[in-house]
Design a protein that fits this description.
The protein has about 220 residues and is α+β, with helices and mostly antiparallel strands. The chain has 4 helices and 11 strands, in the order αββββαβββββββαα. The protein has one domain: Nucleoside Triphosphate Pyrophosphohydrolase, CATH 3.90.79.10. A hairpin with a 4-residue loop joins strand 6 and strand 7.
Length: about 220
């Protein structure tokens, strides 16, 4: 694991950094019509000039990833013109943030989940007054986490988990009494590595062969159902 480092970004500095990197970035795209396209919003929030990321704690009544910490997002609907529209619509439906309040910063790598979704992450920020309106069927509560938590290794750990006979490194981020793990932690890790060139894991996950192996394994599993 890397040595703990200290990164101090004001809200505007963080927004500028994300925008500068993602404007030049060509996200890895997955084209597989046998799975459902979905999108999530990695949303920067200004709290007294300190950048935070918004997460939702899913309820136990949703279909997938019950009780887990997630980015706002969901499956693409027919009326969505793009996956970015999906991410913004789902953010509004889940926590009440109007799409017009979200300023776009760019797109990151697609991610193939074990639950047969291809997730397209988008980054954005909100710097206007708003009130949350929680969809209590989908969201148990909202979690605002300082960006700095993900720019150090103190609150990060890796566990070896077995899935269908294969051992994977699973990432866990701890904040207060909450744990961000699974697909969300993986996407988050890739976002931090891509934008801030920092990763508490032993290898940069966007260049780690485990990523390609993971994708191939899921595609193979899907095709053999």
């Amino acid at each position: 694991m890397t040595t703990a480092k200290k990164f101090d970004y004001s809200f505007q500095q963080a927004v500028n950094r994300v925008g500068e990197v993602l404007r030049k970035y060509k996200p890895y795209r997955i084209s597989d019509h046998s799975v459902l396209p979905a999108a999530v919003m990695i949303l920067l929030l200004n709290r007294e000039e300190i950048p935070h990321l918004i997460f939702t704690k899913r309820t136990d009544t949703v279909e997938t990833h019950k009780g887990q910490i997630s980015f706002p997002g969901g499956v693409k609907d027919l009326q969505d013109k793009s996956l970015l529209d999906t991410a913004k619509r789902e953010t509004y439906e889940e926590i009440g943030i109007q799409p017009a309040l979200i300023s776009d910063l760019g797109q990151l790598d697609d991610f193939f989940t074990v639950t047969d979704f291809v997730v397209s992450p988008f980054a954005g920020y909100i710097d206007s007054p708003f009130e949350y309106k929680i969809n209590t069927h989908e969201v148990a509560h909202i979690l605002e986490v300082p960006l700095a938590v993900f720019l150090r290794d103190d609150d990060f750990e890796i566990k070896k988990w077995e899935h269908q006979g294969t051992i994977y490194d699973v990432f866990f981020y701890h904040y207060q009494d909450q744990v961000i793990w699974g697909a969300t932690a993986y996407i988050l890790n890739r976002f931090i590595e891509t934008v801030f060139a920092y990763n508490p894991a032993p290898h940069a996950v966007i260049r780690d062969p485990r990523n390609e192996h993971y994708l191939r394994e899921n595609i193979h599993r899907k095709s053999n159902k």
